[in-house]
UniProtKB/TrEMBL annotation:
Signal sequence, renumbered to the chain: none
Keywords: Magnesium, Metal-binding, Methyltransferase, Transferase
GO molecular function: metal ion binding; methyltransferase activity
Protein name: Putative 4-hydroxy-4-methyl-2-oxoglutarate aldolase
One Pfam family cited in the UniProt record for this chain: RraA-like
BP GO terms, sorted: methylation
Residues annotated to bind Mg(2+): 102
Residues bound to substrate: 79-82, 101
Domain of life: Bacteria
Named cofactor requirement(s): a divalent metal cation; Mg(2+)
Length: 209
């Protein structure tokens, strides 16, 4: 499976050019983690993880396990043992819109784990849910095989069909931002676009003192 990601891509650049950004509560358990790969999608009823076990049994190296756990925060649907299995299977990371546990153990590991909450309570294994079907996770649609990128700012998702255009636009924006940073370093503190934007806007700005 080819990797579309190149040096310099990050969640902010991709979100700015149209990638779907998951909602803010889903964050990495440890600062500095970079997650990227193709989505293996799972949905589970609140507090249940049987479908996640089924997904792990079918996972392929490079997959990112993306779990719609209904945003439920009072029972963890994964922890240290399941994440150890995910790492051993070669997964690129885990995303859970819900709760995880064994946080200290997970932070000490190498597998990037993103979650909306932490809870010491364990899951049920009653069943329900789905594996490999379209889901909503973090407030956005995620289809099987979508590209997922996560870093300290959060997570973005985009389809393979969008990837070429989105990545080109994100890299171009990154180059533009680098030029702006260089201008600031030279002392050019007023963006060139500001006057035109202010002329179009309705703002109440007090006179300069």
């Amino acid at each position: 499976m080819s990797d579309v990601f190149t040096e310099g891509l990050c969640s902010t650049l991709l979100a700015d050019v149209g990638a779907r950004a998951m909602h803010a509560p889903i964050k990495p358990l440890r600062a500095g983690w970079l997650l990227r790969g193709r989505a293996l999608t799972v949905s589970v009823p609140a507090g249940d993880n049987l479908a996640i076990h089924a997904a792990l049994a079918a996972a392929r190296p490079g997959d990112v396990l993306v779990v719609d756990a209904q945003g439920y925060a009072d029972r963890a649907v994964m922890g240290g043992i399941m994440c150890a299995q995910a790492a051993a299977a070669g997964l690129s990371g885990v995303v859970v819109d819900g709760a995880m546990r064994d946080a200290a153990e997970l932070r000490a590991g190498a597998l990037p784990v993103f979650a909306a909450a932490l809870s010491p309570a364990g899951p049920t294994k009653t069943g329900g849910g789905s594996v490999g079907r379209p889901i909503r996770c973090g407030g956005v649609a995620v289809n099987p095989g979508d590209w997922v990128l996560g870093d300290d700012d959060g997570l973005v998702v985009f389809s393979p069909d969008e990837s070429e255009a989105l990545i080109a636009a994100a890299l171009a924006k990154g180059r533009a931002e680098a030029l702006r940073m260089a201008a600031i370093a030279r002392g050019e503190l007023r963006p060139v676009w500001l006057d035109e934007a202010l002329a179009r806007a309705t703002l109440d700005i007090a006179p300069a003192r």
